[in-house]
TrEMBL record, chain A:
Organism field: Brassica campestris
An MF annotation (GO) of this entry: translation initiation factor activity
Name this polypeptide is given: Translation initiation factor eIF2B subunit alpha
Quaternary assembly: Component of the translation initiation factor 2B (eIF2B) complex which is a heterodecamer of two sets of five different subunits: alpha, beta, gamma, delta and epsilon. Subunits alpha, beta and delta comprise a regulatory subcomplex and subunits epsilon and gamma comprise a catalytic subcomplex. Within the complex, the hexameric regulatory complex resides at the center, with the two heterodimeric catalytic subcomplexes bound on opposite sides.
Predominant place of localization: cytoplasm
Transmembrane domains' residue ranges: none
InterPro entries membership: eIF2B_alpha/beta/delta, elF-2B_alpha_N, IF-2B-related, IF_2B-like_C, NagB/RpiA_transferase-like
Alphabetical keyword list: Cytoplasm, Initiation factor, Protein biosynthesis
Compositional bias per record (Polar residues), positions renumbered to this chain: 18-31
Sequence segments annotated as region (Disordered): 1-32
From TrEMBL, chain B:
InterPro entries: eIF2B_beta_subunit (IPR051855), IF-2B-related (IPR000649), IF_2B-like_C (IPR042529), NagB/RpiA_transferase-like (IPR037171)
Coiled-coil ranges from the UniProt annotation: none
Protein's organism: Brassica campestris
Protein name (record): Translation initiation factor eIF2B subunit beta
Domain of life the protein comes from: Eukaryota
Stretches with biased composition (Polar residues): 140-161
Similarity field: Belongs to the eIF-2B alpha/beta/delta subunits family.
Stretches the record annotates as Disordered: 140-172
Length: 386, 409
């Protein structure tokens, strides 16, 4: 009842669902929290970061208890496809995703490649239908991951267009699809290198860079700048609750880059000594804004009010067909937060793991398609889907 | 060719000594020079487009290095490269279409061996793949990997042994150069005619009894205002004098000669007068890919004043001023410091400019930057020869005029 957002429809829904709690093991939790919404994507990111406390584990166990039933549902839906395979696209995806250096979209496309390999289809149409089903399964399993959705959509789109190019032989078309899917991992690595190269000009000697979150792309940018012997220093935000600040400062001190850690609340205090802000993105939306770790919007607002440029580094496969109108206009992605002390039972915790930064607070996006201003993103998306 | 080389060297010298004033004149001279380079260049039979591109790039790199601040040079070189790629592509699609027809009429049985060298793919696919080399990388092509080059149809046609095909091939050789030179001539025509094209739109933007503010002197702005005057709109013009060169004085004289009511003000009076002004119109030196404007020194101040008082800030720029680069430190890297004598007379201040006590550097420094950078958030509208555009739309025009491969020279 305290929430009044511009999307009153969302408020209405939430009021309705909170009045009738869906699960039996919901009784231990406060009425507004939905355990099913704990985002697998952010759980994996946390696992990669390695910040796991016993508190978090306990909550995660409870969440997995709700999550396993979800997985079973999707298992049964896969077997409902009528094919007799022991192959499960979700398992495949999970396997790929656990690797820390692999982007989410790459894992998705590898999983879909495995679907193609295991498929017994004999025509392009059948293959496409199978792929569509597998992609829908993946997307419904984790609704909160934008790069997963975007990666799946991109691959399905590519398959549809390739089949339209009249390959005479089905097997050669299939092998070409497999080859491109495998190559996508290389494309992703190359994308990071291209982005690092494009952003080198923007880092000048003696500059101070503020970084939020632990993006592998931003890390690549800073590494390349250090290799080019640029003199700069980095301010990292602490990045609660993932503790990204400490991890990033570890990595950067290995490269001999001067690093300073800030509390998340100390960003405005330090903003006058900052020359530019660099962030990664979990997803780039159609308006040109980004969805990223919680805190990005705050930093962008402060930077904008002090006339500091905010640069976003994102690969192009993160472009998604979403258009959030406000912060709550996305699928909720919740993440358990530990405060170190016991919280009274009646106290709510804002558990959202991400926020949306509108395009007017962003200066430029560095992508493997080139340097873009936020207005170019919708153009690219239209070109893809037309 | 020695003649062309000497022309290039002479032009490089002129650029380095800043002998050519104004981006339009520079652009024209550059294009004419490149046209001579292209027409004198001997092209090999295979891969002639890449030979031409390499030749133009080599000359272009020299020219840009001679005067890196004059962005029109780089812009125009990239336009010429884009023309070469486009003409090559259209010839390739025509050649492939021609081969298709020939094969269809030649051999009815030989359906598979189309002689194109792409097993199992139709000519339309080849053309589509070749066309994608011309566009910048996009989400569509992300998964496709690097498309095969458009020159493959040429080599396959040279491998064919019918005489009609070889005759076609030599005519194709001459045709590419001819088409490119035609395209370049069109570009020269466009550059020369940009003032008229922009001035045609004046009547839509300037209304009766308006007060216009401008700064310094720009021929585009002069033509723009006079075109509105021709169409019987009566309005007043405030001209900020544009110290230290005081070119605003020249503009004011021109405007009065054409019958416009003009007021001359100092640059410092811009903030004071801005509340009485309906629109600010400025000519740009260059427009960057993000929509930022490089203009004569003082326009940033006028832009900030206009933003504060919600006055529309309109920038006029011909298409040769559109630069595909994103500025990362424009106040320093894209600026030029002119002689301090424009500010202070040498005679009066020469003792201050002497080396001061001990430290070895003079106590008095005089800085005279030529250009100012206006960020895209302060600009309301760009008027180019293709029409009026939003600053966030400039990337589209740039994508139309330039190819992604030419950005780095």
């Amino acid at each position: 009842m305290w929430r009044r957002s511009a999307s009153f429809i969302l408020d209405d829904e939430r009021r309705r669902t909170s009045n009738s709690p869906p699960m039996a093991d919901n009784t231990t939790r406060a009425p507004f929290q939905n355990p099913d919404a704990i985002s697998a994507y952010y759980q994996t990111r946390a696992a990669h970061h390695g910040v796991i406390t016993s508190d978090w584990l306990a909550q995660a166990q409870a969440a997995v208890g709700g999550g396993v039933s979800g997985e079973e549902n999707s298992d049964s839906s896969v077997s409902e496809l009528g094919k007799d395979k022991s192959f499960n696209v979700i398992e495949e995806f999970n396997g790929w995703r656990k690797q820390p250096d692999l982007a989410e979209a790459v894992a998705a496309i590898r999983a879909l490649a495995a679907v193609i390999r295991a498929s017994e289809a004999s025509t392009m149409m059948e293959l496409e239908i199978e792929l569509k089903k597998a992609s829908d399964t993946l997307k419904s399993w984790d609704k909160t991951s934008i790069s997963l959705t975007a990666g799946c959509d991109l691959f399905i789109r590519y398959v549809t267009r390739t089949s339209a190019l009249e390959y005479e032989d089905f097997n050669s078309a299939k092998s070409r699809l497999l080859e491109r899917a495998e190559k996508f991992g290389e494309i992703s690595c190359k994308a990071r290198k291209i982005i690092a190269m494009l952003s080198q000009d923007f880092i000048f000697d003696g500059c101070t860079i503020l970084v939020h979150g632990l993006s592998r792309v931003v890390l690549e940018i800073l590494k390349t700048a250090a290799q080019n012997n640029k003199l700069f220093r980095v301010l990292c935000t602490e990045g609660r609750p993932d503790g990204t600040g400490v991890l990033l400062s570890n990595e950067l001190s290995k490269l001999d880059i001067p690093v300073k850690l800030l509390l998340d609340s100390a960003v405005a205090y330090s903003m006058d000594e900052v020359d530019m802000v660099f962030v990664g993105a979990d997803g780039v939306v159609e308006s040109g804004g980004i969805i990223n770790m919680m805190g990005t919007y705050q930093i962008a607002l402060v930077a904008h009010s002090m006339n500091k440029p905010v640069y976003v580094a994102a690969e192009s496969y993160k472009f998604a067909r979403l258009y959030p109108l406000d912060q709550k206009d996305m699928a909720p992605a919740l993440r358990p937060i530990e405060f170190g002390v016991k919280i009274p039972a009646k106290v709510e915790v804002e558990m959202s793991a991400r926020d949306y930064t509108p395009p007017q607070y962003l200066t430029l996006l560095f992508t493997d398609l080139g340097v873009l201003s936020p207005s170019v993103v919708s153009d690219e998306l239209i070109q893809l889907y037309l | 060719m020695p003649d062309v080389q000497s022309m290039v060297l002479e032009f490089v010298n002129k650029l380095r000594k800043r002998k050519i004033e104004g981006s339009q004149a520079t652009a024209r001279c550059t294009v004419e020079l490149l046209r001579s380079v292209i027409s004198h260049h001997r092209v090999p039979h295979a891969n002639q487009a890449s030979a031409l591109i390499d030749a133009v790039k080599a000359v272009g790199a020299q020219l840009v290095a001679a005067n890196p601040v004059e962005l029109a040079v780089g812009n125009v070189v990239r336009r010429v490269l884009h023309i070469i790629r486009e003409e090559d592509l259209s010839l390739a699609t025509a050649a492939v279409a021609g081969l298709d027809l020939l094969d269809a009429s030649d051999d009815d049985e030989d359906v598979n061996g189309k002689g194109i060298g792409y097993p199992g793919m139709s000519a339309a696919v080849v053309a589509a793949a070749a066309r994608s080399t011309l566009r910048p990388p996009s989400l569509q092509t992300l998964l496709e990997g690097t498309p095969e080059s458009a020159t493959v149809p040429y080599t396959s046609s040279s491998g064919a042994d019918s005489e009609s095909k070889t005759a076609d091939k030599s005519s194709i050789t001459r045709k590419l150069k001819h088409d490119v030179i035609e395209g370049v001539n069109q570009l020269i025509h466009e550059i020369a005619g940009c003032h008229e094209q922009i001035a045609e739109q004046a009547i839509e933007h300037i209304h009766q009894n308006e007060v216009i503010l401008t700064l310094g002197s720009s021929r585009t702005v002069l033509e723009f205002l006079c075109a509105a005057k021709e169409k019987k709109r009566s309005f007043r013009v405030f001209v900020a004098e544009g110290a230290p060169r005081y070119q605003g004085h020249l503009l004011a004289k021109e405007l009065v000669a054409r019958g416009l009511q003009t007021t001359v003000i100092t640059d410092s009076a811009v903030f004071a007068m801005i509340s009485r002004v309906n629109m600010v119109i400025i000519g740009a030196h260059a427009v960057m890919a993000n929509g930022g404007v490089i203009g004569p020194v003082g326009v940033n101040m006028a832009a900030l004043a206009a933003k504060k008082h919600a006055v529309p800030f309109v920038v006029l720029a011909g298409s040769h001023k559109l630069c595909p680069l994103y500025p990362h430190n424009p106040e320093v890297l894209l600026n030029e410091l002119r002689s301090p004598s424009e500010l202070l007379d040498f005679g009066e201040f020469s003792d201050c400019l002497d080396f001061g006590t001990g430290s070895g550097s003079p106590l008095l420094q005089v800085v005279n930057p030529t250009f100012d950078y206006v960020p895209p958030s302060l600009v309301s509208l760009f008027i180019t020869d293709t029409g009026g555009h939003n600053p966030s739309y400039m990337y589209r025009l740039i994508a139309d005029y330039y190819s992604a491969d030419d950005l780095v020279m």
